[in-house]
User: What shape does this take?
Amino acid sequence: MLHVSLRHALSGFSLDVDFTAPAGVTALFGRSGSGKTTVVNAVAGLLKPHEGRVAINGGDLVDTARRIWVPPHKRRVGYVFQEGRLFPHLTVRQNLTYGRWFSGAARDAAEFDRVVSLLGIGGLLGRHPGALSGGEKQRVAIGRALLSRPRLLLMDEPLAALDEARKSEILPYLERIRDEEDVPILYVSHSIAEVARLATTVVVLEGGQVVRAGPAAEILSDPEAVPAFGVRQAGSVLTGRVVRHHPDDLTEVAVSAGSLFLPGWLAEPDTVIRIRIEAQDVMLARSRPQDISALNILPATVSALRRGQGPGVVVQLQAGEDRILARITRRSADALGLEPGTLCFAITKTVSVAPVDIGTPG
Amino acid sequence: MAPMDWLGPAEWNALALSLRVSFWATLVSLPPGILVAHALARGNFPGRQLLNGIVHLPLILPPVVTGYLLLLTFGTRGPIGGFLSETFGIVFAFRWTGAALAAGVMAFPLMVRAIRLSIEAVDPKLEQAGATLGASRLWVFLTVTLPLILPGIIAGSILAFAKAMGEFGATITFVSNIPGQTQTVPSAIYAFLQVPGGESSALRLVVISVAVAMTALLVSELVATRVARRIGGR
Assistant: This one.
């Protein structure tokens, strides 16, 4: 459990945040300039906040009121930087073991092998960072941070410098770390797809303030948080279980309100997965549509509406135990007479769910 | 004709002394050189510009002035020289150690400059990464900064060595020109040129000087590219 409470002023910008990060992945979401990196640097000890307190499991790292300051090298906080920051003069193996020289931990070959195979970097050990691709560098950087036996893992946009292919290469590894390692992660991102896929808790920063914080499924499907995420990116996260792969190359996934059909082979039957559906890909109908090409039709109840300044309305629906966000025009909302409690059907096309939007639940 | 016969004993003495003086001048000024370069590159303290000025002083002062100042402070009756000779028996005046001191002081700015540039080229973000992995500032310096500035250290050392080999003004002012004691190659060339018939000896030493300088330069290039390739990591 990480507790952060900070006040810090930079030129033309002031930060005032207070949040708690429980076990799992806590995503610190916000646009550039919202203060995400400042928060992470204060947790790592690379920045001295003017005022505030940072504590891990009750142990203080910073407390300006009591003049407590733990220097960065004594914090045992692993930091994965956006640019990797591998040591160019050391081999991959030496980079990975660098933190162990100082953590005081005995040389644990089993632990080393476990992390190396978790990240799939066994073939790179003898190389120097200069000979690695961007994705490989980032995996080594993650392994280096993990092997320093951190009490907390900080990741500052670890995928931002990579192209889409490399991102989807690394995301499964991050999910494995979240699911298999017993270390809380503070994950900075301005990509809602990454947040939706990885986060268990979401903290939304705007202009140096926390505007929303809570469990990921709840915050992502909160119509009031849509402006912070951006109307084109906003979407809800559903948890489902793979039923089977059909011969016509569709995977059937059971969610609480019914079945969804997603393209391609996703996972073995009974695997629990996480699916993100963007609000702008959801259509609404008052009656169950017949003769329609879209395969995914879930019965739902309107639970909230948020009218913005433009022509759009964000509708929050309760579909079984899951929540779905739909972004439709105000005209349509009025024509359908939508208000909280209205029964309707949420429709999405199969292809609207991109592979990057499918992950494992944390 | 073997080189032994080609050089006379006086010329040999001068060459051997020059090499010894330059070697020790470089070796002893290396640790303070790295320390000062680091302080100038990364430090943020009030007297930084003053330190920078003092380090560069021998580069801009006339060498004779530097030599005289050394005589005043490190001479047997000088404040530092007197203390050192009385308590530790270390004497600089008119000894080869004095020649090494003069050469070291004259070469110091060149060495600091080369190392400082290489420290400034090291990304501080790598040093931050080292800190988050549990390395204290000293360990970060030893395991990250120092290996990365090795080419700069080598370049600075060779530059300092070459400068020490050629130092004349401060040396002759501080420790005079005593054959076998303080007569380095430049002093010997100067002395040979003062006596009739000394031109041939002087000329041989000139050839030696050029050869030593060229060798030093080639070796430094070779080592620097090797180290750079290793650090660049392929």
